Amino acid sequence: MSPFSEFLAAEGVREEVIMDARVGVMALHGGLEFGTSRLAKSIAQQSAASLYAVVQASDFAWHLPSTQYDPTVSPNLGRFLRHVRTVFSIHGYHRPELGDVVLLGGNNRSLAHTLHGALSSQGIPAISDLGRIPKALRGQHSRNPVNGPVEAGVQLELPRSMRQPVPLSGIVAAVTGVLVGMV
Protein backbone atom coordinates (compact mmCIF):
# COMPACT_ATOMS: atom_id res chain seq x y z
CA MET A 1 0.00 0.00 0.00
CA SER A 2 1.41 3.41 -0.96
CA PRO A 3 1.53 6.31 1.51
CA PHE A 4 -1.12 8.12 -0.58
CA SER A 5 -3.51 5.16 -0.56
CA GLU A 6 -3.00 4.80 3.22
CA PHE A 7 -3.67 8.50 3.64
CA LEU A 8 -6.86 8.43 1.56
CA ALA A 9 -8.10 5.39 3.50
CA ALA A 10 -7.58 7.07 6.87
CA GLU A 11 -10.64 8.08 8.88
CA GLY A 12 -11.34 11.79 8.54
CA VAL A 13 -9.71 12.20 5.11
CA ARG A 14 -11.90 12.94 2.11
CA GLU A 15 -11.51 14.02 -1.50
CA GLU A 16 -13.74 16.73 -2.91
CA VAL A 17 -14.08 16.91 -6.68
CA ILE A 18 -16.08 19.19 -8.95
CA MET A 19 -15.64 18.74 -12.66
CA ASP A 20 -16.46 21.97 -14.40
CA ALA A 21 -14.19 24.14 -16.58
CA ARG A 22 -10.96 22.91 -18.16
CA VAL A 23 -9.11 25.13 -15.67
CA GLY A 24 -8.85 23.82 -12.12
CA VAL A 25 -8.03 24.70 -8.56
CA MET A 26 -6.49 22.26 -6.08
CA ALA A 27 -5.90 22.15 -2.33
CA LEU A 28 -3.92 19.03 -1.49
CA HIS A 29 -3.42 19.77 2.21
CA GLY A 30 -6.86 21.00 3.27
CA GLY A 31 -7.35 20.89 7.03
CA LEU A 32 -3.59 20.74 7.60
CA GLU A 33 -2.64 24.00 5.85
CA PHE A 34 -5.19 26.37 7.35
CA GLY A 35 -7.50 28.07 4.86
CA THR A 36 -6.23 26.41 1.69
CA SER A 37 -9.29 24.28 0.94
CA ARG A 38 -11.63 27.17 1.77
CA LEU A 39 -9.67 29.43 -0.59
CA ALA A 40 -9.63 26.82 -3.39
CA LYS A 41 -13.40 26.24 -3.05
CA SER A 42 -14.13 29.97 -3.11
CA ILE A 43 -12.02 30.51 -6.23
CA ALA A 44 -13.59 27.52 -7.98
CA GLN A 45 -17.13 28.68 -7.16
CA GLN A 46 -16.55 32.27 -8.28
CA SER A 47 -14.86 31.30 -11.54
CA ALA A 48 -16.71 28.07 -12.45
CA ALA A 49 -13.36 26.25 -12.31
CA SER A 50 -12.99 22.56 -11.57
CA LEU A 51 -11.92 21.63 -8.03
CA TYR A 52 -9.88 18.87 -6.44
CA ALA A 53 -9.29 19.06 -2.70
CA VAL A 54 -8.10 16.60 -0.10
CA VAL A 55 -9.40 17.61 3.29
CA GLN A 56 -8.40 16.01 6.55
CA ALA A 57 -9.74 16.50 10.05
CA SER A 58 -7.91 19.38 11.74
CA ASP A 59 -6.63 17.07 14.49
CA PHE A 60 -5.19 14.55 12.00
CA ALA A 61 -2.13 16.57 10.86
CA TRP A 62 -0.61 14.15 8.33
CA HIS A 63 1.58 15.99 5.83
CA LEU A 64 2.05 13.94 2.71
CA PRO A 65 4.39 15.64 0.19
CA SER A 66 2.66 16.68 -3.02
CA THR A 67 4.95 14.41 -5.03
CA GLN A 68 3.31 11.41 -3.32
CA TYR A 69 -0.18 12.33 -4.55
CA ASP A 70 -0.37 9.69 -7.24
CA PRO A 71 -3.15 9.91 -9.86
CA THR A 72 -2.89 6.15 -10.45
CA VAL A 73 -3.88 5.59 -6.81
CA SER A 74 -6.78 8.06 -6.74
CA PRO A 75 -9.28 7.76 -9.61
CA ASN A 76 -10.60 11.20 -8.59
CA LEU A 77 -7.20 12.87 -8.90
CA GLY A 78 -6.47 11.05 -12.16
CA ARG A 79 -9.80 12.09 -13.68
CA PHE A 80 -9.32 15.69 -12.51
CA LEU A 81 -5.80 15.98 -13.97
CA ARG A 82 -6.95 14.53 -17.30
CA HIS A 83 -9.94 16.91 -17.39
CA VAL A 84 -8.16 20.22 -16.73
CA ARG A 85 -5.57 21.72 -19.03
CA THR A 86 -4.01 23.89 -16.29
CA VAL A 87 -4.38 24.23 -12.55
CA PHE A 88 -3.80 26.55 -9.61
CA SER A 89 -2.66 24.57 -6.55
CA ILE A 90 -3.14 26.35 -3.21
CA HIS A 91 -0.63 25.58 -0.42
CA GLY A 92 0.49 27.10 2.84
CA TYR A 93 3.97 27.67 4.22
CA HIS A 94 5.56 28.87 7.43
CA ARG A 95 8.90 30.59 6.86
CA PRO A 96 8.99 33.83 8.89
CA GLU A 97 12.23 34.88 7.18
CA LEU A 98 10.31 35.25 3.89
CA GLY A 99 7.80 37.70 5.30
CA ASP A 100 4.24 37.92 4.02
CA VAL A 101 4.54 37.12 0.34
CA VAL A 102 2.84 34.71 -2.06
CA LEU A 103 5.31 32.37 -3.76
CA LEU A 104 4.37 31.35 -7.31
CA GLY A 105 5.94 28.07 -8.35
CA GLY A 106 4.88 25.28 -10.70
CA ASN A 107 5.96 24.66 -14.28
CA ASN A 108 3.59 27.05 -16.08
CA ARG A 109 5.85 30.07 -15.78
CA SER A 110 3.84 32.25 -18.14
CA LEU A 111 0.73 31.76 -16.01
CA ALA A 112 2.76 32.39 -12.84
CA HIS A 113 3.88 35.77 -14.24
CA THR A 114 0.30 36.64 -15.25
CA LEU A 115 -0.89 35.79 -11.74
CA HIS A 116 1.96 37.81 -10.27
CA GLY A 117 0.60 40.88 -12.06
CA ALA A 118 -2.96 40.16 -10.90
CA LEU A 119 -1.85 39.79 -7.28
CA SER A 120 0.21 42.98 -7.50
CA SER A 121 -2.83 44.87 -8.78
CA GLN A 122 -4.62 43.77 -5.58
CA GLY A 123 -1.71 45.06 -3.47
CA ILE A 124 -0.57 41.53 -2.61
CA PRO A 125 3.20 40.97 -2.66
CA ALA A 126 4.25 37.95 -4.71
CA ILE A 127 7.41 36.35 -6.02
CA SER A 128 7.41 34.49 -9.33
CA ASP A 129 11.20 34.43 -9.84
CA LEU A 130 12.13 30.80 -9.08
CA GLY A 131 15.62 31.87 -8.05
CA ARG A 132 14.09 33.74 -5.10
CA ILE A 133 11.78 30.89 -4.00
CA PRO A 134 13.20 28.17 -1.72
CA LYS A 135 13.62 24.96 -3.69
CA ALA A 136 11.22 23.00 -1.46
CA LEU A 137 8.44 25.51 -2.24
CA ARG A 138 8.90 25.81 -6.02
CA GLY A 139 6.51 23.01 -7.06
CA GLN A 140 8.77 22.01 -9.94
CA HIS A 141 8.89 18.23 -9.55
CA SER A 142 7.31 16.27 -12.40
CA ARG A 143 5.37 14.09 -9.91
CA ASN A 144 3.76 17.13 -8.26
CA PRO A 145 0.09 17.16 -9.40
CA VAL A 146 0.35 20.88 -10.24
CA ASN A 147 2.46 19.81 -13.21
CA GLY A 148 0.16 16.96 -14.27
CA PRO A 149 -2.20 18.77 -16.67
CA VAL A 150 -1.15 19.23 -20.29
CA GLU A 151 -0.28 22.93 -19.68
CA ALA A 152 0.99 22.33 -16.10
CA GLY A 153 0.02 24.94 -13.54
CA VAL A 154 0.95 27.38 -10.80
CA GLN A 155 1.61 26.44 -7.18
CA LEU A 156 0.62 29.27 -4.85
CA GLU A 157 2.39 29.07 -1.50
CA LEU A 158 0.72 31.36 1.03
CA PRO A 159 1.96 32.37 4.48
CA ARG A 160 -0.59 31.87 7.27
CA SER A 161 -1.26 35.62 7.48
CA MET A 162 -2.59 35.54 3.90
CA ARG A 163 -4.94 32.66 4.61
CA GLN A 164 -7.05 34.86 6.90
CA PRO A 165 -10.32 36.48 5.74
CA VAL A 166 -9.04 39.98 4.82
CA PRO A 167 -6.10 39.14 2.51
CA LEU A 168 -8.08 36.15 1.35
CA SER A 169 -10.53 38.37 -0.54
CA GLY A 170 -7.71 39.97 -2.54
CA ILE A 171 -6.21 36.59 -3.39
CA VAL A 172 -9.62 35.27 -4.45
CA ALA A 173 -10.15 38.35 -6.63
CA ALA A 174 -6.73 38.07 -8.29
CA VAL A 175 -6.88 34.33 -9.03
CA THR A 176 -10.53 34.50 -10.07
CA GLY A 177 -9.74 37.37 -12.43
CA VAL A 178 -7.07 35.30 -14.17
CA LEU A 179 -9.27 32.20 -14.22
CA VAL A 180 -12.35 33.93 -15.64
CA GLY A 181 -10.26 35.09 -18.57
CA MET A 182 -9.24 31.49 -19.21
CA VAL A 183 -12.60 29.76 -18.75
Helix-strand layout with pairing:
Elements: H1 3-9, E1 13-18, E2 23-30, H2 36-47, E3 50-56, H3 75-83, E4 86-93, E5 102-105, H4 109-121, E6 126-127, E7 153-159, H5 165-182
Parallel strand pairs: 2-3, 2-4, 4-7, 5-6
Antiparallel strand pairs: 1-3, 5-7
Helix pairs in contact: 2-5, 4-5
Please tell me what the overall shape is.
globular
| H/E element sequence | HEEHEHEEHEEH
Annotated CATH topology: Aminopeptidase
How many runs of DSSP E, i.e. beta strands?
Answer: 7
Cα-atom Rg, whole angstroms? 15 Å
Structurally, how many domains make up the residues? 1
How many separate helices? 5
Strand content: 15-25%
Structural class: alpha/beta
CATH class (first level) name: Alpha Beta
- Strand arrangement within the widest β-sheet reads 1-3-2-4-7-5-6
| Mean pLDDT, all residues | 94
Task: Explain how this protein is built.
32% of the residues lie in helices and 23% in strands. The protein is of the alpha/beta class. It has one domain: Aminopeptidase (3-Layer(aba) Sandwich). The protein has a seven-stranded mixed sheet with strand order 1-3-2-4-7-5-6, sandwiched between helices. Helix 2 runs parallel beside helix 5 (165-182) and helix 4 (109-121) packs across helix 5. The longest helix is centred in the last third of the chain and has 18 residues, at 165-182. The protein is globular. The model has no long low-confidence stretch (mean pLDDT 94).
